[in-house]
Amino acid sequence: MPGVVDARPEIAGEHASRLAFTPAAIELIERLWAMHGPLMFHQSGGCCDGSAPMCYQEGEFKTGGQDLKLGTLELPPSAGENAPREIGFWMSREQFAVWAHTHLTIDAVPGRGSGFSLEAPEGKRFLIRSRLIS
């Protein structure tokens, strides 16, 4: 996909990214960051979110030993800042066991996001597009 940005791999031993973000997703992330500050994503695979990753203010969703950090999206610093902005993407271990052989691309499409995810009132929702890793 043109303009897709790869996340930095975070799983031990992995050197190639298994996670990317489309320009539409990055545009929505930029808008949410401006409103809410630092962000994070979590994909649980539970009954309420299906293929929709949930976006939270960083630290708002408590991760633990049952979660893996798949990657970190790095965005340029905000105005007046020096360090890049980092957005972690987490997934439950149980969900990762199912999706371990896939590359995930986070996109933003028209629609209503989940009530728990920050994009819910924005008229767009995050969506995962997946493909098998060869």
Topology:
Layout: E1 5-6, E2 8-9, E3 19-21, H1 23-36, E4 39-43, E5 54-57, E6 67-75, E7 85-92, H2 93-99, E8 102-110, E9 124-132
Parallel strand pairs: 3-8, 4-7
Antiparallel strand pairs: 1-3, 2-6, 4-5, 6-7, 8-9
Explain what the structure shows.
This protein is α+β, with helices and mostly antiparallel strands. The chain is 16% helix and 38% strand. It has two helices and nine strands. The chain has helices at 23-36, 93-99; strands at residues 5-6, 8-9, 19-21, 39-43, 54-57, 67-75, 85-92, 102-110, 124-132. The chain has a five-stranded mixed beta sheet. The longest helix has 14 residues, at 23-36. The protein is globular. The mean pLDDT is 91.
Concise overview:
The protein is an alpha+beta fold. The chain contains two helices and nine strands.
What characteristics describe this protein?
134 residues, single chain, 2 helices, four-stranded mixed β-sheet, alpha+beta, five-stranded mixed β-sheet, globular
**Rough shape?**
globular
Please give the number of β-strands: 9
How does the major sheet shape up?
5 strands, mixed
Strand order of the largest sheet: 2-6-7-4-5
Low-confidence stretches: none
Query: Could you tell me the mean pLDDT?
Result: 91
First-to-last CA distance: 17 Å
